[in-house]
Amino acid sequence: MHRVGSAGNNANSNRPRKEKRLTYVLNDTDDRKHCAGINCLAVLKSSVSNGCNYLFTGSRDGTLKRWALGEEAATCSATFESHVDWVNDTVIAGDNTLVSCSSDTTLKTWNCLSDGTCTRTLRQHTDYVTCLAAAEKNTNVVASGGLGGEVFVWDIEAAVTPVTKSSDVMEDDCSNGINGSANSLPVSSLRTISSSNSITAHSTQCHGYVPVAAKGHKESVYALAMNDSGNLLVSGGTEKVVRVWDPRTGLKTMKLKGHTDNIRALLLDSTGRLWDLGQQRCLHSYAVHTDSVWALASTPTFSHVYSGGRDLSLYLTDLTTRESLLLCTKEHPILQLALHDDSIWVATTDSSVHRWAAEGRNPQKVFQRGGSFLAGNLSFSRARVSLEGSIPAPVFKEPTFTIPGTPAIVQHEILNNRRHVLTKDTAGSVKLWEVTRGVVIEDYGQVSFDEKKEQLFEMVSIPAWFTVDSRLGSLSVHLDTPQCFSAEMYSADLNISGKPEDDKVNLARETLKGLLAHWMTKRRQRPGSQASANGDISARSLAHSRIEVDGNAENDSMVYPPFEFSTVSPPSIITEGTQGGPWRKKITDLDGTEDEKDFPWWVLDCVLNNRLPPRENTKCSFYLHPCEGSAVQILTQGKLSAPRILRIHKVVNYVIEKMVLDKPIDSANTDGTFAPGLGGQLQHSAVGDGSYRSGLKPWQKIRPNIEILCNNQVLSPDMSLATVRTYIWKKPEDLVLNYRVIQGR
């Protein structure tokens, strides 16, 4: 997958500098719903009898959401948006601190009851952070594990509390540099977890705070569990062993062997049941599932365990009697469980969350319904064989309540016009997006994706100025400099009124203006900020590379209709500047204070200073010869050059001028066509014949009638040189066009 912000810059390297990218994530639906699988759940119970309980969900769409729970209702009361990749796990530390971890390699802390503002970003992991564990009674301790084989133990209070305001690197090292609420945290002295000499020291992290490192895993860590007091930590992963740690020191106390495949879920009670930690051996194993177990939850007394996983099934097992019961079967693999009184919340690879009856306070009630079986003590493979084909009937057919999500995009195709993307979601619905506005312009319903793609094919050639992916369940559009500035279109083709029809429009520049329109408005409202910011950007950008000023734009700050983004369902920006690492925010949440520390310099240089980086391959070289056997005069002997987007009707105009009007083409001409001879330039502006203003196409007025051919195929006047080269010429050599006079029309 693409790691946002992995610029890999090296000042001492001779390789070309790789600039930071800007990504925007599109959203056409209600922002109060997830649009990708739910990886994690956490329940916050009210401390007062009639208070509101909350469910927190973390999704593969990169966000967390807080749901206010009623009897038969769940209302999304906040979206926590800052992670730039999947949210993999979340825990509640203390009374109101939410901690989340992500494939973006960070942990983030949030106030559970806030409006969704990130209070701190913790960077220590070098790879995806997959799991978290918290101590119920020691409310400050949270452990994190990830694909890098790293396990860290954090004192959350110490990690998120600034020491002094003079620590300039504090915000940059710890947060995303854009969440202002971090500055409002109280200043107090640090309190760290005690550590021994065996703990590995790590690079400066969060104003001097370094988490305890538990070293020993050689491979990925997928599961963590901690006891209530926070003095026992267990971890598991692809090494198929359970490691036991003292989280206060990071020392490994033992290693438990017995599993024959990856360990994906762990539970720990105060007694160390199921494994005898004293004798370091397994006491019981329960063969219930027919495939990998990915999620576990236990009753408060640890007498019963709920389990779910890849086999789509949720089981309840009595650990004493070994009785098991199939509670329900799902349509998607189960990723996490959260017990809430007599119900259990179930998260799957689908974007919806379901609540099922569970009788968590008295699970024996469920067993009284009958249908239980004895959990085997067999190896995994034998259990699978013995159970498949004889799966019991589930106790419950339907969930008691569902928090619906929206279908995730699972297939996409960028169309040839480089403005539209065709998508298909998990519900089979096919939609057409316009990426320069971030909206769905056509919903085709459940139709064949491939057939619709063929129907929408256009014979046009426009450079690939963006890339897309659907990893977050929605379309993420990536802009990288200088490639993103390679695509231009005439304003007439974009139906932009009030702009000369032959003006060239740079698609990336106008898209960036549309994305940052709200930011620009906010920025203008802040006195004194504009001049200083412009100066900084100018100096920095000129030092990096040659810059071309977009002369056509004339510092035009207007956002044209084809580039206006919705404020009802605004896209989110994912990017990074010089400090603080990658961040994510809705375009309507930008407050105008963001600058080069937050945005790539080339983005600001484009939007504020109207400067674009040098672009390659914007011209197309070609020869213009009479058709073979034609008596038409030879107009030019040399190679011609013109913008790639130049239309064939302009070439017709040139031929007419040379043959009939006999204009002094070789001299400078303000109306402009292209000059003959080696290296001659074909300007983009039309012959000044007033054709556009009269409402007629230029070729509808042309006399005599001229046809332009390529490979003996007559070209449409609407075709661009790039289109002819791609679809008609199909050769690496310079394009050859032929012209002829058509008689009798």
Furnish the topology, listing elements before pairings.
Elements: E1 22-25, E2 38-44, E3 53-59, E4 63-69, E5 74-81, E6 87-93, E7 97-102, E8 106-111, E9 118-123, E10 129-134, E11 141-146, E12 151-155, H1 156-160, H2 169-174, E13 212-213, E14 221-226, E15 233-237, E16 241-246, E17 251-257, E18 275-276, E19 281-282, E20 293-298, E21 304-309, E22 313-318, E23 323-329, E24 334-340, E25 343-348, E26 353-357, H3 364-367, E27 373-374, H4 380-387, E28 401-403, E29 409-414, E30 420-425, E31 430-434, E32 439-445, H5 449-455, E33 467-469, E34 476-479, E35 488-490, E36 504-506, H6 507-515, H7 517-524, H8 529-544, E37 548-549, E38 572-575, E39 583-586, H9 601-609, E40 611-612, E41 619-626, E42 640-643, H10 648-661, E43 680-681, H11 691-694, E44 705-710, E45 713-714, H12 721-729, E46 735-742
Parallel strand pairs: 41-46, 42-43
Antiparallel strand pairs: 1-34, 1-38, 2-3, 3-4, 4-5, 6-7, 7-8, 8-9, 10-11, 11-12, 12-13, 14-15, 15-16, 16-17, 18-19, 20-21, 21-22, 22-23, 23-27, 24-25, 25-26, 26-28, 29-30, 30-31, 31-32, 33-34, 35-36, 37-40, 38-39, 41-42, 44-45, 44-46
Helix pairs in contact: 8-9
